[in-house]
Amino acid sequence: MKRSIIYLSAICFLFIGTTALKAQDFNPKKNNYLILSKNIRQIEPVLLTAHELAAEDNEEYGDFYVIICGKTVKDIPNNEDLKRLLEKAKARHVSIFVCGISLSKFNVSPEDLPENLTIIENGILYGLQLSKKGFITLTI
Questions:
Q1: Does the pTM exceed 0.85?
Q2: Residue span of the signal peptide, if any (predicted)?
Q3: Contact 76, 67 (CB under 8 A)
């Protein structure tokens, strides 16, 4: 009986130790960033952040994505300030997406959106999928 407990304990410790090593070994080749935002007014500071991170990361800088979700999608159509920021985002290689579920919920037509904006079906799901791929995420 004592041997069974010792063997079982050893197997558990071996498994836990191996799991910890796997987590420590994860090292993406690039630093990829994702911002999930419920406020389009945050895009300008996000672009400043992306610029600083690109300079800081240098060769290790990867992708920078912003997903706009929630009620703020109502503020997107005919927003000249946003159009200007989208051009700035494009120049800085920042991809901006909008949640299709939010568009539907708040009755915003995709035809009313600027061309530089990409619609994804489910912003939260997409954000979680990117997190699983190693993106550094922040919700604001």
A1: no
A2: 1-23
A3: no
